[in-house]
Amino acid sequence: MAFGKICAFLAVCSASGTFPTPERGLRGSHNSTEVMGNAVATSIFPSCTLESYRFDEAPQKMPIGSSSNMDALPGIDLTGLWWMRGNPMPEVLATFAGLKVLKTGSPFPLQFSTPMGSAFHWAYPDSIKGEAAARIFWGPVGLPLSESPDGSGIERMKWEMYSAEKGTIPIVGPFASLMDKWDFNFIDEDQWQRPTIFKPYFCQEYGGALGFTCEKPLTITYVLTRIVREDGSRTKYWSDFESKMVQDGTTDFISFKNDSPCMRSAANQWMTCSMRELYCNR
Predict the structure, then answer these.
(1) Which residues partner with 35 through β-bridges?
(2) In terms of DSSP H, where are the helices of the chain?
């Protein structure tokens, strides 16, 4: 698959096959359209599907992971709100609220799943790339990156932990042909390393265009960093998060605001919000 085709598949690249600069104000001040000259740019999702909010409102909008809404993991604390610091993809925050243990050893290995596709569980920049990522990963076209074991249509991401300090996220769907592993490695109580290791052929074929030498397996890493604790207090990393968002101009986020597959369905995107609500609740 040519790099340009990968870009088209991810719907985050321009016609030239390069990643575009994020365009701010896709929804403006919580609006679904923005007038640009004589043209009107319409959001991929009307406001009945996604909600825009200020980055510093995230602790009030997103469910904070806690002992009351997560199964306990032996020696692992994933409560709070987490920043994907250094993530090259247009994804910013995540919460493990709703975590369910699937299988345990003695006590390892263990498997758990998280409802990352649920409302307000994942935050993206309010930009064209951010909305495209939301649409692809958890939206109406939803890549099969995870499972929906309860039949709700809202996908749950599966995690496998070999110990309290090392684990992986099994790769399923189309990314499995490009990537070897999504690892998950403990750094300290507020940080986990999240490397993505690509298959050798991907770097050999596309690495030059991306500026990589391919002398060793291509690995792109970000650090999952806790910025809000279970009790709502901020960790020492909140100030870094705040400074980075202001510096990058990423002061507005978007998240899905409902768990209805019908509301998110690509087939229903032509409907107004009121029409869609009537149709989906019939």
Answers:
(1) 40
(2) 3-10, 58-61, 128-138, 200-210, 238-248, 261-264, 273-280
d(CA 101, CA 113): 7
In whole angstroms, what is the distance from residue 161 CA to residue 111 CA?
6
Residue 24 CB neighbour total at 10 angstroms: 16
The tens digit of pLDDT for each residue in 151-162 reads 555 668 899 999
Residue pair 57/51 in contact (Cβ under 8 Å)? The answer is no
Extract the runs of DSSP E, i.e. beta strands, from the chain: 33-36, 39-42, 50-54, 81-85, 93-94, 100-104, 110-114, 122-125, 157-161, 166-168, 179-188, 191-198, 219-228, 252-256
Collapsed DSSP state (helix, strand, coil) of residue 83? strand
Angle at 17 between CA 219 and CA 216, to 5 degrees: 20
Chain centroid to CA 179: 17
At 167-219, the pLDDT tens digits run 999 987 777 888 899 999 999 999 999 999 988 887 777 777 767 777 778 88
Total residues belonging to the chain: 282
Residues 6+ apart with CB under 8 A from 246: none
Residue spans of the domains in the chain: they are: 3-270
The CA distance from 215 to 39, in Å, is 47
